[in-house]
Amino acid sequence: MIGQGVQPGAPPLEARFRRREVSFRWAVAVAAVAIVALGAMLAWGAYGAATQPDGEQVVTQLTAAWGGNDAALLEEVYAEDAVLVSAGGATYEGIQAIKGVSRTMAAYDFRPEVVGPVVQSGATVVAPIRMTWSDGSVLYVTSIFELNSTGQVVHHQDYGPSE
Asked: How many CB atoms neighbour CB 90 within 10 A?
């Protein structure tokens, strides 16, 4: 109830803000921990990338070696005891057997070509390959390569229609 002679009025506006205070020392400690964590993550990623063979480079070298019948490059890319399994299921064990197949394929002007993205997960590399021959034959395969710690192919298998 309003008394006589008293005018109604608005309550006084007093904005009260609670001010959160963050100590400078606390902010610096949080920033330092964040920087150390980020640095550790970057170092771990760089270490993983440095110790992992480059699968795309291996596939590029393989297509060059097979397409150019380059025995020296085949020896560089394949391990001495490498195993090659063709799409048709023929198995070739050892670098000498693989070089023999390469010579046979070169007689028919064999040309492999990467036709999609090369994907690598750990030591396993997958690449879609189109193979062509001088008679006009074309075969599309998915090649899977297993690399050793030095980046050489120890197992190469082609999946696709039988040859």
From this structure: 12
Calpha distance 32→14 (Å, rounded): 39
Strand partners, 156: 84, 145
pLDDT tens string 33-88:
888 888 878 777 665 555 445 889 999 999 999 999 898 999 999 999 999 999 88
Q: Give the Cα separation of 53 and 41 in Å (integer).
A: 20
Residues 76-112 pLDDT 10s? 999 999 999 998 899 999 999 999 999 998 889 999 9
For 156, the enclosing helix (H) or strand (E) is strand 153-159
Q: Is 151 left (phi over 0), alpha (psi -120 to 50) or beta?
A: left
Is 0.85 topped by the overall pTM? no
Residue type, 44: W
- Contact yes or no for 102/65 (Cβ under 8 A): yes
Element (H, E) at 114: strand 111-114
Angle between helices 55-67 and 95-106 (to 10 degrees): 50
